Structure prediction request, 385 residues.
Amino acid sequence: MSVAELQALERDYVIPTYARAPVEFVRGRGTRLWDSEGEEYLDFFSGVGVTNTGHCHPAVVEAIRDQAERLMHTSNLYYTEPAMRLARRLSESSLGGKVFFTNSGAEANEAALKLARKASAGREVVVVHGAFHGRTYGALSATPQEAKQAPFAPLVPGFVAVPADPAALREAVGEQTAAVLLEPIQGESGVHVLSEEVLRTAREACDESGAALMFDEVQCGMGRTGTLWAYQATGVVPDAMTVAKALGGGLPIGALITSPRLADVFDVGDHGSTFAGGLVTAAAALAALEVIADPALLRGVVEVGERLATGLADLPHVVSVRGRGLMLAAELDLDAREVVQRALLKQRLVVNAPAPTTVRLLPPLILTEDEVDEGLTRLRAALGA
Prediction:
């Protein structure tokens, strides 16, 4: 089908919740995508930070194919080796507690919110302005963005939103607080790095009050910032964390990972999910983790990320550059959405505009220095230089 035919089908049959670009991608390999017309694109977006291993990484594809040929589903009422092995791998690589599997980042955050409230006499969850934790009701209630929340009020009660400021956090956290939920680096609002002072203050306030400190690493985890988990570069260790997006190497899977302190809060029947941690997705996640946890790859994320950040800062119309590793944003003095459209349709470069003057870059973690330079050349042209 042509793109025009797909657009016609969408108009007639699809609820219009997405502003799609007029492109159909049909094939991918590494950092490259090809559309239905055979045009090749350089991908600096990874499907919203999902294909950290690159498109169709051979190890991930092999794991999916091998498992799918043998068995695809049994449910969580029976044991499966991939899920048990994945839980061990996630725990041992991070907080050392236990894991609850989900199908997405929003679902992982829903599980975290339930866990926090069951574990504490407090009912409130403190979040910070600019946060994005998902679109399901609990996760949306933890996302203090008026445009996203207002059409769906009333929301779940018990959420307190404060500026990402140490003093404001300390004042908000007390005996009524069940948890503080933070993204170490806010992604959807335009790649805003929370300062280590904010993270330390949150940790101290939670320790004093008995509340749980929870990090949402759905976008900033899985090697994206140069360490396997973003918290590992901050010196602040949360009591629980949520992960998703890149975890499945391209397939949908998320997880809530606890520290030992919160490992046994849930009892049988407290939470569940039909498909979560399924055989195929867990097998894919094990393969993706093996690729991303490679120390050489993580060093490369830091080095290549520095090259990309430096190059971005030298481009015309770039006012500032934010982020860490290969989670970067360029703030512009012109309309970022127009730049993103020109980049896609004229320069065959895939980037994203999460805010009116912000270009977000989330390339696959296998990006090379030559591809950085190629991407910068294409983006410079899209900027009109």
